[in-house]
């Protein structure tokens, strides 16, 4: 996935890039920044994930399971409301359900079909054991010296106190912001999250 992002940046001749990633996307962003072929990054923003090798939360397996059932034509789910009702059996938090359902593709009434997801749920399910991995070890051989913002959800355990020295070993210039949220920082407090990372980017531009 990091290679895909690098290819997109290179193909489109982007420079002075600000790269933001949440959870697994955060690991992708960190992996790219630490890569020997790292493109022209100006700012790195990581949302509630640490550069560790670990298993994903069991909640992700549950989400993928119910998403697969929702997309199964035999479930005969045809509307977003029906999909939300099915997802509610596994997730009570409306904000999280709405975030997961941003990937839902609802057919028009004329097509009279069932819903499906825009992401490859089956591929993600098969790869779940590897999705919590991280390609680099904190041995000092890989560092990114650029501006790095780490946003932690105060109610989330994805970034612990022990994670901070680990972050600094990879990203010596890191700054830490903590928000009163769980893991889904951008879904729970989107306006506050947006303000934090925009101010971080604008502060860099003001220094230029």
Question: What distinguishing features does this structure have?
Answer:
6 strands, alpha/beta, 208 residues, 14% strand, 4-stranded parallel sheet, globular, 42% helix, two-stranded antiparallel sheet, 9 helices
Task: Tell me what the structure shows.
With about 210 residues, the protein is α/β, with parallel strands linked by helices. Helices cover about 40% and strands about 15% of the residues. The protein contains nine helices and six strands. The chain has a four-stranded parallel sheet, sandwiched between helices. Strands 3-4 form a two-stranded antiparallel ribbon. The longest helix has 18 residues, at about 190-205. It starts with a helix and ends with a helix.
Care to count the β-strands? 6
* Relative helix content: 40-55%
Structural class: alpha/beta
Q: How would you sum up the global shape?
A: globular
Mean pLDDT: 92
Order of strands, main sheet, comes to 1-2-5-6
The description of the largest β-sheet is:
4 strands, parallel
End-to-end C-alpha gap:
31 Å
Unreliable parts: none
Radius of gyration: 19 Å
DSSP summary: helix tally: 9
Written as H for each helix and E for each strand, in order along the chain, the element string is: HEHEHHHEEHEHEHH
Task: Note the beta-strand portion.
Answer: 5-15%
């Amino acid at each position: 996935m990091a290679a895909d992002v690098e290819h997109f940046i290179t193909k489109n001749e982007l420079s002075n890039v600000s790269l933001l990633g949440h959870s697994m996307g955060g690991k992708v962003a960190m992996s790219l920044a630490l890569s020997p072929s790292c493109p022209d990054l100006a700012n790195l923003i990581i949302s509630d994930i640490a550069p560790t090798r670990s298993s994903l939360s069991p909640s992700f397996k549950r989400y993928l399971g119910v998403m697969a059932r929702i997309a199964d034509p035999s479930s005969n789910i045809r509307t977003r409301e029906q999909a939300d009702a099915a997802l509610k059996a596994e997730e009570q938090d409306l904000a999280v359900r709405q975030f997961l359902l941003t990937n839902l593709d609802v057919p028009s009434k004329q097509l009279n079909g069932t819903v499906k997801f825009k992401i490859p749920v089956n591929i993600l399910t098969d790869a779940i054991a590897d999705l919590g991995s991280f390609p680099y070890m904190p041995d000092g051989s890989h560092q990114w010296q650029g501006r790095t913002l780490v946003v932690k959800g105060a109610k989330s355990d994805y970034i612990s106190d022990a994670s901070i020295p680990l972050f600094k070993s990879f990203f010596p210039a890191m700054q830490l912001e903590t928000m009163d949220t769980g893991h889904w920082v951008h879904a729970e407090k989107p306006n506050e999250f947006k303000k934090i990372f925009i101010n971080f980017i604008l502060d860099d531009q003001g220094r230029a």
